[in-house]
Design the sequence.
């Protein structure tokens, strides 16, 4: 059973950036400033860095880069070069995120037009999964500023109802499908699901969403595990 009294959001202290993440960010900004001077006005680290759960060698580096204007085709090509140069030197961890404008952040995430982004280190255009209310919520409250004003000093449209709707859709879509695909013991995915990485991905991924629905807040995978130990009965504790 979910225990309402145990759903108080965890405070977010000021975050230090691990040297391995700092090196990647520094190189990207150097390349971006050389190839498209003045374009990147803000750069914020989200994900595990912002939520205090960055694990060197395991965690990706999630970011939101902010421009003052909509990038032109030439700007997008320059950003792609900047990311390629960064990836050539830093294959892992992945530097994954999205490029948006200040006005995009002040508006509804669904109204953000095809933003340039990187996923698993690969540059793409046309928006994608990274443009979502979780990213907006983390940016508004937890993001680590590398360049630009600190969170709270610029507008980010956080919509609690949209966050809840998106979370439910993610559970009913991605995670329901994931469970079905990995619940067949004689399949390749079923065998993989017996390993530790699959258990951690499934249990912590779903629990993070439960936490968001229960509290309206965002937590890391580690935070989700601690929350699950408080919120669910002892029968679940061995797998948690």
Sequence:
């Amino acid at each position: 059973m979910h225990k309402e009294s145990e759903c108080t959001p965890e405070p977010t202290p000021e975050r230090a950036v691990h040297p391995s993440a700092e090196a990647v960010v520094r190189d990207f900004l150097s390349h971006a400033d050389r190839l498209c001077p003045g374009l990147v006005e803000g750069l914020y680290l989200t994900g595990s860095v912002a939520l205090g759960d960055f694990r060197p060698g395991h965690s990706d580096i999630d970011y939101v880069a902010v421009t003052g204007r909509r990038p032109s085709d030439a700007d997008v090509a320059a950003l792609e070069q900047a990311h390629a140069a960064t990836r050539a030197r830093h294959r892992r961890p992945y530097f994954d995120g999205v490029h948006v404008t200040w006005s995009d952040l002040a508006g509804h995430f669904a109204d953000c037009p095809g933003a340039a982004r990187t996923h698993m280190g690969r540059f793409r255009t046309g928006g994608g999964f990274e443009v979502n209310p979780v990213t907006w919520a983390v940016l508004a409250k937890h993001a680590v500023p590398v360049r630009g004003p600190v969170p709270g000093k610029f507008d980010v449209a956080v919509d609690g109802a949209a966050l809840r709707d998106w979370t439910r859709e993610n559970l009913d879509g991605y995670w329901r499908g994931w469970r079905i695909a990995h619940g067949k013991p004689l399949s390749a995915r079923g065998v993989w699901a017996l390993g530790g990485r699959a258990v951690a991905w499934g249990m912590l991924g779903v629990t993070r969403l439960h936490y968001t629905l229960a509290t309206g807040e965002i937590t890391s995978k580690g935070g989700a595990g601690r929350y699950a130990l408080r919120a669910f009965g002892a029968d679940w504790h061995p797998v948690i």
About this structure: The CA atoms of residues 55 and 136 lie 22 Å apart. Residues 159-236 form one domain. Residues 1-13 have pLDDT under 50 and may be disordered.
